[in-house]
Amino acid sequence: MNNNDLIQIAEFQKEIGSYIGGLEPDSIVFEFSAVENKTRLDLVTVNPRHRQSFLFHTVDGYDKVDALRKMLDYVRNYKERESSYTIQWSLRGETELHTSYFRAKNIFDALDKLTYGRDLNSIIVYSVVLNPIS
After folding, report:
1. What's the pLDDT at 116?
2. Sign of the C-alpha dihedral computed for residues 9, 10, 15 and 16 taken in this order
3. How do residues 45-70 score in pLDDT, each as one tens digit?
4. Contact 14, 20 (CB under 8 A)
5. Which one of 4, 54, 89, 90 has the fewest beta carbons within 10 angstroms of its own beta carbon?
């Protein structure tokens, strides 16, 4: 990877973070992986209060720069494209009820974002609500 690519990657990551807004720098994780000759980017957010991570969105690109370019396009417009969901949940064995908010295509996509990277038996979902359009 050349220097121009590294600079472009840093710029895209900074701009993506600014669109998501309100998150601390260590609350956004860019997870790259190789999938079928493509680069997959999972954008993960970490809630600073309860320190749980959730999937924000996934894109595939030809390389890291292309994947970040596609993610930037998504974060610029996701509020117009996807519905807002509120999910109430807790970790199995704990009593504290958490409320998290997701933008997703449908209820299943919202639940996938909640359960990303964790054992499905480690979390209890109490409710999923499609929020009214504001």
Report:
1. 96
2. positive
3. 998 888 899 999 999 999 999 999 99
4. no
5. 4
